[in-house]
User: Fold these one by one.
Assistant:
Number 1:
Amino acid sequence: MINRVNLFKYCYTSNLLQSKNKMLNLPKVIRFLLLTIPGFILLPNVALAEVGTESQFIFNTFSFLIWGALVMWMCAGFTMLESGSVRTRNASVICLKNIGLYAIASITFFLIGYNLMYIDVNGFIGSFTLFYGSSSDEILLLSGSDELGEAVVSSGYSTMSDWFFQMVFVATTASIVSGALAERVKLWAFFLFICVLTAFIYPIVGAWTWGGGWLSDMGFQDFAGSTIVHSTGGWAALAGALVVGARTGKFRQDGTVKTTPPSNVPVVTLGIFILWLGWFGFNGGSQLALGSAADAVAMSIVLVNTNLAAAAGVLVALIISRPLFGRVDLLSVLNGAIGGLVAITAGPDMVAHGWAILIGGIGGLVCSLGIRILEKLKIDDVVGAVPAHLFAGIWGTIATCLASGADILIQLIGIFAVGIFVFFSSYIVWAILEKVVGCRVSPNVEELGQDVAELGIEAYPEFVVMPDRDELK
Amino acid sequence: MINRVNLFKYCYTSNLLQSKNKMLNLPKVIRFLLLTIPGFILLPNVALAEVGTESQFIFNTFSFLIWGALVMWMCAGFTMLESGSVRTRNASVICLKNIGLYAIASITFFLIGYNLMYIDVNGFIGSFTLFYGSSSDEILLLSGSDELGEAVVSSGYSTMSDWFFQMVFVATTASIVSGALAERVKLWAFFLFICVLTAFIYPIVGAWTWGGGWLSDMGFQDFAGSTIVHSTGGWAALAGALVVGARTGKFRQDGTVKTTPPSNVPVVTLGIFILWLGWFGFNGGSQLALGSAADAVAMSIVLVNTNLAAAAGVLVALIISRPLFGRVDLLSVLNGAIGGLVAITAGPDMVAHGWAILIGGIGGLVCSLGIRILEKLKIDDVVGAVPAHLFAGIWGTIATCLASGADILIQLIGIFAVGIFVFFSSYIVWAILEKVVGCRVSPNVEELGQDVAELGIEAYPEFVVMPDRDELK
Amino acid sequence: MINRVNLFKYCYTSNLLQSKNKMLNLPKVIRFLLLTIPGFILLPNVALAEVGTESQFIFNTFSFLIWGALVMWMCAGFTMLESGSVRTRNASVICLKNIGLYAIASITFFLIGYNLMYIDVNGFIGSFTLFYGSSSDEILLLSGSDELGEAVVSSGYSTMSDWFFQMVFVATTASIVSGALAERVKLWAFFLFICVLTAFIYPIVGAWTWGGGWLSDMGFQDFAGSTIVHSTGGWAALAGALVVGARTGKFRQDGTVKTTPPSNVPVVTLGIFILWLGWFGFNGGSQLALGSAADAVAMSIVLVNTNLAAAAGVLVALIISRPLFGRVDLLSVLNGAIGGLVAITAGPDMVAHGWAILIGGIGGLVCSLGIRILEKLKIDDVVGAVPAHLFAGIWGTIATCLASGADILIQLIGIFAVGIFVFFSSYIVWAILEKVVGCRVSPNVEELGQDVAELGIEAYPEFVVMPDRDELK
């Protein structure tokens, strides 16, 4: 290939510079320059291989946008997972809760959440200012001012692409709560809690960590949010489950547990696949850059580890299913994927992929066991959100010590600090809501189903549905 | 960091040029060049930060492809929204209509639509030529002719990536029609109408605007198609609804309206999420470029506004739901997202995100109110396509005057011109179809359901379905 | 625009070089250089328009990742297609099979499959080594060694991005098998077969072709895998269908065939849309590069042809449906999309798009006819996987001779060689599994449904389901 580097070498090594023709009465150096300069202009510039700063800016920004769109898609995954998991009589209201929580998260994070999390973080909390928007340089660039291009480009990515990517993460946290509390939490109490969670609780956890606060300063490692996103959601859900209580009849007086199989298995499965796909965005985009070969290499590794961990979670849950539960338990297997995904999320960027299989596999195990532990504790979590997001999230955050050399003490401090803060602040919010508006639907509404009672609609109005066997007694 | 710019500064400011060693008997300028030239070759070129034209070409093309793929995905969203909204007896035929209309739009837009819309537009209409394809330069480039790279690159993006992105838009327009006319329009009449809509009606509207025709010359603003795509679909649907008439029993003789709840709420919700995700491609890709920092900044803003508008549409529809309808109406809330999305589509590129919330929120309101208005007018629109796409589309096109400084007069001219053209041409086509093949299924087919009557299939053949209460009377 | 090329031209053609001012006592060549060099540094470098090697690396890698994610999404498509196609009593187990097969494919391809397919292929098979991972250069680059950037970049794309893209392909092959054998193959026998298929059978076919083995040397053309992926899956499914046998009652003693309509049509349709979307990744990503204008042009053409072929498959299946089957057969139309997609997969990169319509249309026809042929042969393929993937795959591989100038003899050798190898090796594996663990569920389980019998779960436990009419007799 003829290119600049080769031309350069050629002119140095060829006899052109020594030849005796007329042109070469010029000094040797000038002859050389004369020979090479046109080549600089006309030949491809393969030696100048690094990515230009503006290209970097585009790569980084586009990475945020496209992966962020996939993370938004996870909301659809949670919705399907949850609406297929609940009984048909509550399948509509869980759809409303999910689209509502995403809308709320979008607005609150724009109004206040992002600023609390990222702007002028003083160690514990960012700025209490309203609204967020493009930088003034960006606005001037858009209005045609060419001179500001360099200032804009030097920030690495566009302001709002980062906001978009961060916003879809807070929505994920909120999604975790809806599943655990399904079938008995009041619609409006739930929405009020989501407002607080997305505007304050999650952003404060975020300020400590990704916002550059005290946990970040200590060296707490959580690549894409095993603790920051998933455990936060899990703790908030757990607090809610304690305040709201179990569904009527879930834990029988004779100590047995009423099984509540998913009402629509294909829809649950679809939800899991959506989440798996969206997780490529969740973890891949958390590389936060795509402007260099190193970023592209790292992002590839992240995707592979994410996929391997989910696969291992599925297989471990599948293999232990019969010994543990007496049968192949599809819901455990599906949740195993989530357990693997949550577990790898704290450190998906390691080059030894065997670790991903181990971490994800244990994530699947933790998730399967966790479901039973919650049942022993008589905590009612409809979709297994606490085992999948909280328990596997804690495991994943610890696992970074093995796989990525994180400091176990610091990781534990992070896990406990986030846990204590989120659990107690959530508990207080749920308790206040319980006092003020009441968190739990009436027994009558619970028996009738929230769909008919709260929305005046049925999820599947034309299908003949069997009455609940327990209620027939 | 050592790079070219720094080298340049270093050589200028260092003592190298003044030192007295032997080499420096050369003229000063040559000494300088001698010192800097190798650096030009060997050091990274950070000063030359702008995106190269070939990289721009790739960014622009990839943006069309990836966002276009998401817009194609919207077809699945419409299919789910519609098949979940109709009664189970018509859920199969709406699936067939949707996959069929996408197939038809793909072929007709290739055969004639694109040329009518974009090639040699004379103000009102483009070229009546068959087929579309890659440029001859592109074909030569693919066959290995390196010399044509520059000619290809200068076009900014690959010919067929643009075609792909435009094609999925016409499919969106067609999708709007199927929902409004569900449960009573004949399969083949519908497909024939879609042929005309995608081959002629939509491309002519497109020629006036994005094709560079008279509305474009006037300064009509419609970023991604509130009017061009969504209102066009809405007008075509409205004309069809008038010709085909309401479903039997929808408007009772006593003046009451029969509610027709969605038969499968989770599937409707999935459809809304698919549309929301796809809209990132719809609006984001409509930036039409990703080859500069300014484009990346603008695309980020577009995605954020799109998301905020949808969220506001959801929340407004949620809040007004009880005062307006007496209960939290899930379908209104879901449609509120569409209303918000359609409303922002005319101008999602403004930097003040508060406008997006306002525009989207009003879009949700318009959509909720519009459903009632249509019912008052005894126009039967099964999924609320006319309120969501036509009414909110009109609102969004007007709203650009507030948010993006569009001229209200020109916007109104555009809205009316497109409305009159699309409504009347569609009405004529529907009327001709009514005469020639008949648009409406027989009362018997309507009662039995189109699935069994036209396809010999049931959507859920194993489930026991309840008879329609009205029909039992 | 002022840029380097223009500056270069300007200096050559302007009078600057001839002017008599003091500076120009310098030799003319130096004057020229003096005038142009600063411009080289300060002006945008539009002449140097080719994509830098690091940008190429990022484009190529990102293309693998994002398109690969869409191919992973196809697994969800197969799951929906299959779980909607089977009777409700087997809808859960097919979900488990599908998520399980994807997990298995992920792990086996990491453990051994990729190495067998791509590493040191000796003509027939690659390396029997365990595990796969990033290159040592990549690992050093990630650990901060800047010097290795060039070595990494010279490989064109990141190692694991390629692995990810290849892995999702083997999962597609495995997905094809599950649908054909639904409703009667034992869960564990199926998973054991998938282990062999993904670890050995598919990688060996891959080694012959994409791995650079003997078929590749001969010039066998199969752009994205009509034969390598889809026919391989089809042959494996066919062998399984023969060993496992037809579902009880499918072929009645009086020679009639029991129709088995899909139990959930909207879910089947969703599956088809997911596959269609995913196929943009499947074929588009198979360009294997995005680092040049030529690649971007080719990828655009690939997406357009993929879409046109699918559309033509739908329309041909729609048009021939009534003459062939006496009614508009929705399942045939949906399968027509798959037939069109599979058919175009061997050669979607041609510039004459009319061929795509023809190839896809015939693919739809082959698929529709194939379903009837299989029924005549009393081979029970629940979802029509063999017609859609094997028959249309053969057609597509042959069609490259017409459209892309492939050698018919070589294409036939490839089709037969792959067919004989995959069919017989699969048959042997199925036969061994039949001896050792038994492939087929007991008649009792088949009647009861695998969901309840093998998983202790129902897919739709609350819905009242009608008994099978045949079983009532």
Number 2:
Amino acid sequence: MRTVTKDTITDVFLGYIGQDTDPRFKQVMTSLVTHLHDFAREVDLTHDEWRQALQFFMWTGNITTEERNEFVLLSDVMGLSSLVDMINSHPGGTSSSVLGPFHISDAPALAIGGDMKGDVEGDLVLWQGVVKDATGTPIKGATVDIWQTAPNGMYSSQDPDQDKFSFHAILTTGADGRYAFTTVRPVSYTVPTDGPVGVILNAAGRHPWRPSHLHFIAKAAGYRELVTEVFPDDDPYLNEDTVFGVREDLVVTFVPQPAGSFPSGFDLSGKVSGPYARVDFDLVLVAV
Amino acid sequence: MRTVTKDTITDVFLGYIGQDTDPRFKQVMTSLVTHLHDFAREVDLTHDEWRQALQFFMWTGNITTEERNEFVLLSDVMGLSSLVDMINSHPGGTSSSVLGPFHISDAPALAIGGDMKGDVEGDLVLWQGVVKDATGTPIKGATVDIWQTAPNGMYSSQDPDQDKFSFHAILTTGADGRYAFTTVRPVSYTVPTDGPVGVILNAAGRHPWRPSHLHFIAKAAGYRELVTEVFPDDDPYLNEDTVFGVREDLVVTFVPQPAGSFPSGFDLSGKVSGPYARVDFDLVLVAV
């Protein structure tokens, strides 16, 4: 090994890996380090750039807390999170999309037809659909975990003026597989730009905007968990999501409904006289 | 961009990079993200593995302090640090090698022939050489910053029983370019294994040992700074340095010298009656 050179170091590294190493670990490490070394050789990485990269990772570590995970955000804006989603997607089901950092576990239960809007100012949306399998059969007892921004562009965890579970809820389907609720229209927002990821976006001449969306996690016994997001088709950032989360089957139309047409079967039935928007979106789960 | 897929996401990412982006930043980012995406596709990276990687980076960030930089250590054991050294090496000069995390700035000056051993138990070494340019001309006024482990395998910054600058010194050459000092023989040691890097080494079936060495930073006006290490040729880990630091021209023989042969011109002259080892090692600097 004394004769390690820039052209042999990758083989030397691979030669260090023990015979009894877990085959998957060996496969991942071999590919990772080969690409890492090829990258450094390809660009003739300088000492200054290497030091800057280490400083960048130290800063990313320093700024990361329970509430803010800058490593996840870095993976998001590099396209890695979405790529992993797509690599692991299950044909026949609704596309998955990034979880993001704002999910809160154990949101309160909301009955079918329940309301998340409350007194909040914003455009009323009636959202409904069916959780079903790939053959179209409704799934009973599926849970649909929903979260979104308030109209001010902030999730509850970012906003001291919101309750902890504001715009977070979990619905459970009945025999018809149907879920339905009312809410406000979500808004476009920027990922945090006051840290290392902001520096990268700025250096690359990229904006930090995400198109507006609702998040969903759908679960049912015997089916693969689906983590996804759904986007309105008229959002200005739809074609340039900074975290690469948009998939064609996750784009929906918020269909305007005339005043006086609000249906029965909702918490707000009888209380809404003006116009609203309606979204129909089915969630298709893939069997395990 | 709505039709982003696992096969198009890399091009979508590259398309996000602005026209006015610094060309070098664009080149580095293009290569880095292309390799990152190719890696994920090549191994079909799973969500669990992605989450483990993020946890790994969070842990690496948490354990990193002013005194312990786990990101540098990770770069070292992945071979990236040594690869960057070799990519940026200057033909005609002494090879560079990893800086490592134990250098302390502003070590005290030591006169030519000075002693670093003091009262410490260990094998006495007389070390000398010439700082010269690629044509062999001695360089006057070059500084040679030296640091090494004590015989217990610890650098001063790791060891509360050592003074801050124990086994750290800076020599300055005269007109003959010569530097010379006495010290103890350094010892093999392990990189820290109680953190994320230890987990990686263990999973890969790798040991954490580095062959013994002395560190040098040589500087002189008009020449490129040389950061390097020098290794005894009889160290058992010479051919399997866990951070890939060994280069053929950095390996020296510790030549045994008989009792009664200690020369004049050293702080210890007249005080050493037993055997010792002698190393001759010239440092060749490349002009800027």
